[in-house]
Amino acid sequence: MRAAAAALAALLALPLPAPAADDLAEARQLLLAAETALGAARSGEARLSAIGRAIHAQEAALAAIRHALRRLHAEQAEITRSLHQQEDHFGQVLTALQARAGAPASALLAFPADPLDAARAAAMLGDVTPVIRERMDRLADRARRLETRAARQREAEREARLALAAL
Predict the structure, then answer these.
(1) Mean pLDDT of successive 10-residue segments in the chain (167 residues)?
(2) DSSP assignment of 81-95, as one string?
C-alpha cells in the first residue's frame, strides 16, 4: 500500500489539472488512512474492516490514475493534432518555396515587381523561419513532457494494481 501511496505522491508532483490532482490527493489520503487502520487493527473483525477500506482505497487510487491517464491522453491527442496541423502548414510553405526555387529565371522575375520586392520577400521569410522553428520546438517539448507524464502514470497504475493484488 505504501508503494501505491508513493506512486500517487509522484503523480501529484506532476502539473495536472485541478480535478485530476484533487482525485489523486483524495485517493492518497484514503490509502494512508487505510494503511493506518490496517496497522492498528487487532481483532479479526477490525482487520476485515480495515482490509475492506484498503481495497476501497486501492480502487479509488486506480480510478484516479485512470482518470488522470484519460486526461493526459486527451491532451496528448490535442498536441499531436496541433503538430500535424503545423507539419501540414510547413509542408505547404516548403512546397511553395521549392516550386519557386525550381522555376526558371523568367518566371521568378514575373512574380516580384522589382528587386526590392524580391528582397522584401526574402527578408520576410528570414524573419518567419526562426519563429516557425521556435513554435515547432515548443510543441515537440510539450509532446516529450506528455510522454514522460504518461510513463509515470502508467508506472503508478502498475504499482497500485500490484498493491491491490497484495491485499
Answers:
(1) 59 61 78 83 87 84 82 83 82 72 50 65 69 82 84 80 72
(2) HHHHHHHHHHHHHHH
